[in-house]
Amino acid sequence: MGCSIRLGKRIKCLLPDNLTEQKLKSGEDIMASKQPSVMTVAAIGSIPLIMTLGNSMLIPVLPKMQSELHLTSFQASLTISVFSIVAAVFIPVLGYLSDRFSRKAVILPALFLYGAGGILAGIAAALFSHAFAWILAGRTLQGIGAAGTAPIAMALTGDLFKGDKESRVLGLVEASNGFGKVLSPILGALIALLVWYGTFFAFPVVVAVSIFLTWVFIKEKPKKKEPPGLGKYVKGLAGVFKDDGRWLCTAYLAGATCLFTLFGILFFLSNVLEKSYKIDGVMKGLILAIPLLVMCTTSYITGSKIGKNQRLMKKLIVTGFCLMTLSYALLTFFRGLFLFIPVLAIGSLGTGLILPCVNSFITNAVGKEKRGFVTSLYGSVRFLGVAVGPPVFGRLMAWSRPGMFISIACFTFAVGLLSLLLIRPQTEKGSSGGEEKKKRSRHTILEPVGGR
């Protein structure tokens, strides 16, 4: 009679006492292994797409907003900078909260806040006489919301997927990020044909889709133990950076360099298209999308091929920086658009090789309990690269066009050299490694040159 009351009791009655707990545990493992589905991957992929739209979709709209609201170029650029700086500040905070509670508990409110910021900015632009301050307030909300998107999605991928599938999904996350960069200038230009502030109202529409996918299809595994307190958490992170700071900071720098050069060169190209070639609107968006499409495609292919091959990842990172250096050095000599875009695409190919590998390294740097913070700090550094790229390229453009490309080529060469010297795959030993090998592999997948 008692066995029919609850499913758990019924299972215990059917299994021998000494096998009950073991069978139940294996059943949970089977369920967990079956959980991530195609729709789960689609839901995770939608999250970084939201973050990318935040800046790239507005870039074609900025000249129109500047004229409609009577703004200076600096004021118009604040709509990008405020978003990026606020996101960079809040990413580590939300990363810690995602470690303390759960990924979904951070992602869902962040997406809601992102959409609300878009509504506030859109209503202000449509109805208010002094709209700019309200637009910046809306962009601030969006920046806070963006902090809980792509970096947390990376940590979530590491939680839900293992082995080669994790690398493939991380490649898809980066490809989704790149796809957003490809799509957003075109979408922004198309929406601006109707009304310039329509872009702000497009944000909550896209967010609603991502919220639905995340709510329905992402099922996190329950935490097996209580998360550590703040003091113990900080102490653990300090230990991570003490042991692995050299390669981890180099990996952060590599990712930030890719985003810094990407958004900087897009800023340069946008100015050249409009001022030198009188190309704007949708055609301008399509041309800007070419290098982004190359990066997006390469990211997806790279993520699907690298698996857990650390030596291959290292080679691809160094190769990627070589391609970026070659591209920027050659751009010194090409002014015509017909040759400029293909040469620029070589650098985008390099970026597409680097980012999925760096993502995989950083996601696996620590265990699940600290992964949110480590990946979020990486997201902060990437955002700072995005924020710094356009103004730095702008100053270099005013100084010297050849000097700009030579300086950037030297910088990417230096970062590639650091990656070559400070990051190396962990030396694989035989199957007999004992507990020490387990601890080392669980702690990090890379070592700095010269040991720890």
List the helices and strands and how they pair.
Blueprint: H1 7-14, H2 17-34, H3 38-56, H4 62-68, H5 73-100, H6 103-127, H7 131-146, H8 150-160, H9 163-194, H10 198-217, H11 230-275, H12 281-306, H13 310-330, H14 337-363, H15 368-399, H16 401-422, E1 424-425, H17 434-443, E2 446-447
Antiparallel strand pairs: 1-2
Region (Disordered): 428-452
Pfam families: MFS_1
Organism: Heyndrickxia coagulans
What does this structure look like?
The structure is a single chain. With 452 residues, the protein is an all-alpha fold. It has a single domain (38-216, 243-426), classed as MFS general substrate transporter like domains (Growth Hormone, Chain: A), CATH 1.20.1250. It is built from 17 helices and 2 strands. The protein has helices at 7-14, 17-34, 38-56, 62-68, 73-100, 103-127, 131-146, 150-160, 163-194, 198-217, 230-275, 281-306, 310-330, 337-363, 368-399, 401-422, 434-443, and strands at residues 424-425, 446-447. A two-stranded antiparallel sheet has the order 1-2. Helix 8 runs antiparallel to helix 9 and helix 9 (163-194) runs antiparallel to helix 12 (281-306). This is Transporter, major facilitator family protein. It is found in: Cell membrane. Keywords: Cell membrane, Membrane, Transmembrane, Transmembrane helix, Transport. It holds the Pfam family MFS_1.
